[in-house]
Amino acid sequence: MLSASLVLLVSVPLFTFYVLYRRGRGSLKHLRGPPVPSWLFGNQRQLRFQADVGDLEFEWVREYGEVMRTGGCWGIDQLLVADPRALQYILQGGGYHYPKRAEMNESTRHLMGRGLVWASGSVHQRQRRILNPVFTAQQLRTFLPQFQQCASRLTQKWKEQIENGNTTLNVSRWLPRLTLDAIGDAAFDYHFGALDDPDGKNELLECLDNLFADSTLYPSKFDMLFRALWDHIPESVLKCFEYLPNKEIHRFRSFKVLAKRVAAQLVREKTTSALASEATSRDVMSVLVRSNTAQEGKRMLDEDEVLSQMATLLLGGHETIASTLGWLLYELAKHPEQQQTIREEIKALRMKVGSDAEFSVAELDSLPFTNAAIKESLRLHPISPTINRIADRDDVIPLSTPIVGTNGDQISEVAIAKGQEIMVSICSYNRLTSVWGADAHEWNPKRFLEDRDEKSSAQAKNTSVGVFSNLLTFAAGVRGCIGWRFAMIEMQAVLVELMDNFELRIPEGGLDIQRLPAGMMIPMIRGKMHEGVQMPLQISIVE
Ligand code: HEM
Ligand SMILES: *[C@@H]1O[C@H](CO)[C@@H](O)[C@H](O)[C@H]1NC(C)=O
Ligand SMILES: *[C@@H]1O[C@H](CO)[C@@H](O)[C@H](O)[C@H]1NC(C)=O
Ligand SMILES: *[C@@H]1O[C@H](CO)[C@@H](O)[C@H](O)[C@H]1NC(C)=O
Ligand SMILES: *[C@@H]1O[C@H](CO)[C@@H](O)[C@H](O)[C@H]1NC(C)=O
Which InterPro entries would you find in this protein's record (predicted)? Predict the structure, then answer.
């Protein structure tokens, strides 16, 4: 804390000069936006303490349009962006001109090391080239049987828990076990055994339990002000922050240290066999090792990069899918008739295929409502609701829908200065009425079935964003999620298995789930925050 305070003391005067200098360049003054309650905190405390992630942004978008000026800490303007064309420009067109903010890439380094989420510019390009072979459709198809086996082990475990016809289970406890086993099998050819031993102490799961709730949720005032300065502190100094006595940094680092230790052991076991066995091992680790050794010297990942990559995939490929599945099951529990639709689709497909064998990826893709429900859950509950970027040069951002400026003028493009901070509002885009129609805020999987309202679908096609189905949930462009297809296949396999075996209901007495803002969107029961992350659903076996 002492060193942190010192840094703050030195930084404040320097920073004030910087802000005054920047102010001189003018910038977003002509844009409208929500009232900024405080110079020091801007709108940040409102955002980080809102009851349900996104509610504030949704209200602002209704009021001020799809692009607006909001307040960051220390009097700095942030551009909140939900406009399709602007998003396309920043994420897809802009390529590497809109890097992540230094604050972001530093805390990513604390959490996952120097892996793909952290890397930027040419380092990112090099890492992504090496990782791409792991995520081709052809490679991912080979993981499906492993996902299906994990899903059927979950079925077994749930059936053991059910007495007298039904039981209420905390699915937030079970799903990460499933997804950890799945990423273990697929990525590392290593059996974590998290499902088989639900009460056992799995070191990784224990470290991950409530990770974001304990570290990132409801930051202190000091933390907010301190972190906002990181974007203006030289990288050489930032590197030392990893050792500051700070709750979030400590929690993040403890995951990284543990994940790298697990990875190091696996690399030792794998490297020889991956190279020896003539390219037969299909797990991510073996493909990564092969892909890496195929590069020339300077292009290769060094050992720390390989371990960081593993820590990155372990976290990126597990927590994300578990929470997304949790929200999906929650929505389906609220709509039992839709579960029935999914069951009927599965039954019809079985008849068509004419066997009880597990489905292939192409067969899973052919289930219309099942896939629509997965997409709708991704749309309505993006677990990464906002991502931050910074402009690396002066630029002009085009808009789909003009906004009205402070002086009443129509604005159809926004000029920004180098260093402009940008909030990419994934959750707002996913609920724009201009893209999704008047019921954008409601759960309605059918929207992915029908060719909806001509105008809005034409516009969506024109400026489609994201990696698929016009969803921004996996971000987009060169920094878009590399694991989206991996996630889709795993979610399809799990959903089909669960719907085939169980009926889900909201527990008696109702369930008031709150979407908490912890960087990742986490579910808790309103009024029961002390019980931590949870999603209790009533589960019975399908007759
Ligand atoms: C439903 C599941 C998932 C969601 C919603 C999701 C979401 C995202 C988002 C929003 C980003 C961009 C982050 C940013 O720009 O700040 C991202 C990047 C990334 N995701 Fe995912 N993800 C999911 C599953 C996965 C899986 C299964 C893996 C790996 C097996 C994975 C690995 C990554 C990696 C490595 C990146 C960094 C990509 C890059 O910068 O080149 N994700 N993800
Ligand atoms: C971190 O963020 C800055 C943007 O402020 C960027 O220029 C830098 O390259 C980023 N990445 C790394 C790995 O340092
Ligand atoms: C679930 O079990 C409880 C008693 O354990 C019973 O009251 C309730 O009706 C059951 N619900 C369903 C849907 O079977
Ligand atoms: C639900 O599961 C999560 C994740 O394992 C756990 O942290 C939490 O304590 C559980 N909540 C309850 C009420 O069982
Ligand atoms: C599609 O984009 C073009 C230019 O990029 C624009 O002129 C046209 O109006 C757009 N159409 C719709 C329906 O938004």
Answer: Cyt_P450 (IPR001128), Cyt_P450_E_grp-I (IPR002401), Cyt_P450_sf (IPR036396), Cytochrome_P450_monoxygenase (IPR050121)
Q: Which of 103, 105, 111 to mutate to test the pocket of ligand 2 (most atoms within 8 A of CB)?
A: 105
454 touches ligand 5 (CB under 6 Å): no
Q: Whose CA is nearest to atom 2 of ligand 5?
A: 462
Residue type, 493: A
Q: Tokens at residue 60, please? A: 């602002």
- What is the C-alpha to C-alpha distance for residues 209 and 492, in angstroms, rounded to an integer? 25
Return the CA Rg of the chain.
23
Cβ 135 under 6 angstroms from ligand 1: no
| Ligand 5 centroid – CA 83 distance (Å) | 14
Residue found by looking up tokens 């064998």 in the block: 357
- Protein residue whose Cα sits closest to atom 1 of ligand 4: 534
CA of 167 relative to ligand 3 center, distance in Å: 8
Whole-angstrom distance, CA of residue 471 vs CA of residue 383:
13
First and final C-alpha spacing in the chain:
59
Task: Give residues with Cβ within 8 angstroms of 82, minimum separation 6.
Answer: 57, 61, 66, 67, 425, 428, 429, 432
Task: Report d(CA 470, CA 467) in Å as an integer.
Answer: 7
Within 10 A of 11 (CB to CB), how many other CB atoms are there? 19
Is residue 462 classed exposed, middle or buried when 0-12, 13-18 and 19+ CB atoms within 10 A define those classes? exposed
pTM value?
Answer: 0.92
- pLDDT values of the chain reduced to their tens digit, one per residue, 543 residues: 556 665 666 666 666 656 555 554 457 989 999 999 999 999 999 999 999 999 999 999 999 999 999 999 999 999 999 999 999 999 998 779 999 999 888 889 999 999 999 999 999 999 999 899 889 999 999 999 999 999 999 999 999 999 888 899 999 999 999 999 999 888 888 888 889 876 767 788 888 888 888 888 889 898 899 889 988 888 888 888 888 888 888 889 999 999 999 888 887 877 666 566 555 667 777 777 777 777 777 778 888 898 999 899 989 988 899 999 999 999 999 999 999 999 999 999 999 988 888 999 999 999 999 999 999 999 999 999 999 999 999 999 999 999 999 999 999 999 999 999 999 999 999 999 999 999 999 999 999 997 655 555 555 666 789 888 999 999 999 999 999 999 999 999 999 999 999 999 999 999 999 999 988 899 999 999 899 899 999 999 997
Q: In the numeric block, which tokens belong to residue 523? A: 């579910």
